[in-house]
């Protein structure tokens, strides 16, 4: 489980709100992982992955628009990281997920949390650090 911290804020309200929503998606995945009442978690996992795919496309578009407007010098390398994230999520094989739901769900939760926290702190904060 991930808890939003003020240190994740980049100082742009709509981007920070989107980051909070991504944290909520990660927490949904964690809740499914921990919920012992779901004997088959496949449908929940597929829903979370669909939401993650759709929302990251929207979020990355908005964040890339912000970078363009600010004439952010590291835009291209930042965009590559966004594209890599989307490709990684799209490449998740749901057939493999279905065979070992707990393992893949844990992998998904860890991937989202690790990437999100490190990306926000190490990359996204740089967008506004010198530009606002």
From TrEMBL:
It comes from the Bacteria. Fe cation 1 binds at residues 19, 59, 63, 124. One of its GO terms (molecular function) is iron ion binding. The keyword Transferase does not apply. Keywords: Iron, Metal-binding, Oxygen transport, Transport. Pfam families: Hemerythrin (PF01814). PANTHER family: BACTERIOHEMERYTHRIN. Oxygen-binding protein. May be involved in a storage mechanism or for delivery to oxygen-requiring enzymes. The oxygen-binding site contains two iron atoms. Monomer. This is Bacteriohemerythrin. It comes from Caloramator quimbayensis.
């Amino acid at each position: 489980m991930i808890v939003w911290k003020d240190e994740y804020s980049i100082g742009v309200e709509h981007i920070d709100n989107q980051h909070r929503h991504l944290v909520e998606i990660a927490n949904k995945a964690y809740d499914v992982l921990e919920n012992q009442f779901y004997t088959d978690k496949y449908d929940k996992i597929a829903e979370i992955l669909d939401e993650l795919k759709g929302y990251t496309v929207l979020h990355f578009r908005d964040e890339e628009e912000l970078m363009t407007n600010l004439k952010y010098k590291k835009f291209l390398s930042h965009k590559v990281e966004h594209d890599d994230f989307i490709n990684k999520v799209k490449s998740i094989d749901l057939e493999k997920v279905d065979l070992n739901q707990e393992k893949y769900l844990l992998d998904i939760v860890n991937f989202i949390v690790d990437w999100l926290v490190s990306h926000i702190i190490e990359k996204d904060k740089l967008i506004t650090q010198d530009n606002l």
